[in-house]
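Section 3.1: Structural characterization of target chains.
Under the original work plan, the team committed to producing a structural model for every single-chain target entering the pipeline before any wet-lab resources were allocated. The record below documents one such target. The sequence was received from the expression subgroup and is listed exactly as submitted; it comprises 345 residues.
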Amino acid sequence: MKRGFCYLLLACCLMMSRNIASAQKKAGQYVLVIHGGAGTILKKNMSPEMEEAYKVSLKRALEKGYGVLQSGGSSLDAVEATVRVLEDDSLFNAGKGAVFTHDGRNELDAAIMNGKTRAAGAVAGVTVIKNPVSAARAVMEKSEHVMMIGPGAEKFAKEAGLEIVDPSYFRTESRWKGLQKALKEDSLAAAKSNAYTNPGKFGIINKDNKFGTVGAVALDKQGNLAAATSTGGMTNKKYGRVGDSPIIGAGTYANNNTVAVSCTGWGEYYIRNVVAYDLSALMEYKGLSVQDAGKTVIKKVGDMGGDGGLIALDKNGNMAMPFNTEGMYRGAVTKDGKIEIYIYK
């Protein structure tokens, strides 16, 4: 009887160890995670053709970055290459697909960060740089600064040999129509709420159609993390507004000791909550997992009235994709090349 019990106990222990090993094998397998923006993304409003177009684009970006990592390239090279693919795709609010400001301009922001050295670079309010993420990397590697803005950033990018385009390159008809819609809706909402004569208010925010960002986080074969984020900002924005994307610690952050993070959503709330760094700090100082830390910071954003999401990849290859909106364009690829793509909740 005692021997039979021992055999049963041994069998249970072996089964538990197999389950633990299986769970460990499943965890920590991700090397690249991307997002293409969060918001009111509902399946009922998405045609099959448009849904497929987004999936194809996300897959193309993941394949590009994965190819860099597989060939032994750095996580920095991977996130830059991945984000460039998304910047060149008019489906996303970055680069070619950037939204319009109130004055009918396309103003672009981007940031990149090296988790190994914590070097970082960013550009904001640029209008003629084809790939702002590459300009951000040039700021990081070819200057003593972290952020450059406007004409100065554009002059630097040109001197650094980056591709400069006419502002008309960024114009797309769908984004122009989006501006006209926002102008009309905001004008009606402002008149109704008397926003323009109420001190402290600078306009109405329509969360459903204004936000969008692209980003990537990667872990390379050398164990180094990197993050990159790029955006066209907010539809109908005024006064030279800059969101969280190019602000290190708010919308973009990478630290080899913890995690790489790229955010998307209502930027003002991400800045106020220092979301990307807060996620890292929760992991470093409180020992939270990347999943729990991600949920915690997004809850903070939501509790303040903001919305959006983020992607995060920790130093062990565990990833998180929390968001509090109806959907977020997102995807990931594992060490063995398995691609996962999601859009809705």
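The first helix runs from residue 2 to 26.
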